[in-house]
Design a protein that fits this description.
The complex is a heterodimer of chains A (about 160) and B (about 100).
Chain A (H helix, E strand, L loop, with lengths): L1 H22 L3 H21 L3 H26 L12 H21 L14 H9 L5 H22 L3
Chain B lengths: L3 H21 L3 H25 L6 H31 L13
Classes of the chains: A mainly alpha (about 160), B mainly alpha (about 100).
Chain lengths: ~160, ~100
């Protein structure tokens, strides 16, 4: 029951903050609303009993990605100009609406085979076994490390002063 | 009682909001903000499937972790590109960056 109340509060907060991100004129305030959305999504991970992922969400998204975006906004000094929409506002809205309708039709029409098992409670240890154990995702972890290294080097090479 | 459908509908709502923002915004950084919303929506769907369809396996959460890794790399590269464009053109309006448009 407490889980349901938490879900509804977090869902409403995340959707309202996401709407604020796309509708606010001031890009800086939009970025701060994005932080609210990210924190609410982290709470939703908690209601899904994904505690490790909630911590990762707060540390990486709120702590790193959102701060990076805010620094980017400050560096480009476009706060006064705001974030106007282009001339495809109505078609974009219709496209998003059609997409939402199709997804709702699929989600509500599919007979999901829900399992009645209780989920594993602290996920950190089992997640580590899943990532690094036999039949795990060890190669993918290595590739992710290479991807991050390439991303860092590429970002430095592109953004540094000539 | 909250079930799998609730999480999937929430995911679809957030993804649609992000999709509208990505298509309709002119500021390149606003487009990046909306991309983050879309990635988060996908993560909610993955973790929801992991929780309700296969609660003892954690494969969906592993996928969500890798999406977060890719999102971090994407944000770093995207901001580097935007800052480079701002430095050379003095503007990050996505409708005016049309040098390669035919």
């Amino acid at each position: 029951m407490a889980l349901s109340i938490g879900f509804w509060i977090l869902a409403i907060v995340s959707v309202v903050a996401a709407l604020a991100v796309v509708s606010l004129k001031n890009i800086f305030r939009a970025a701060l609303c994005l932080v609210v959305t990210l924190v609410a999504v982290g709470g939703i991970y908690v209601t899904l009993s994904a505690d490790f992922l909630a911590g990762v969400q707060i540390i990486i998204y709120v702590g790193a990605i959102a701060i990076l975006l805010i620094i980017g906004i400050m560096l480009t000094r476009d706060v006064q100009q705001g974030s106007p929409t282009n001339k495809f506002r109505i078609p974009s809205f219709l496209a998003a609406l059609v997409f939402f309708g199709v997804m709702c039709f699929v989600f509500l029409g599919t007979p999901w085979k829900e399992s009645g098992l209780t989920p594993v409670a602290p996920t950190t240890g089992p997640l580590a076994n899943k990532l690094f154990g036999d039949d795990g995702f060890l190669l993918t972890v290595e590739i992710a490390g290479v991807l991050l290294l390439a991303g860092i080097i590429g970002a430095i090479a592109m953004a540094r002063e000539k | 009682m909250v079930g799998l459908e609730h999480y999937l509908i929430l995911s679809a709502v957030l993804f649609s909001i992000g999709l509208y923002g990505v298509l309709a915004k002119r500021n390149a950084i606003a487009i990046l903000l909306c991309l983050e919303i879309m990635l988060n929506a996908v993560n909610i769907a993955l973790v929801g499937f992991s929780r309700y369809i296969t609660p003892t396996e954690l494969t969906g959460q592993v996928f969500a972790l890798f999406i977060i890794v890719v999102a971090a790399a994407e944000t770093a590269i995207g901001l580097a590109i935007i800052i480079t464009i701002y430095r050379s053109r003095g503007d990050i309006d996505a409708t005016k960056i049309d040098l390669m448009k035919w």
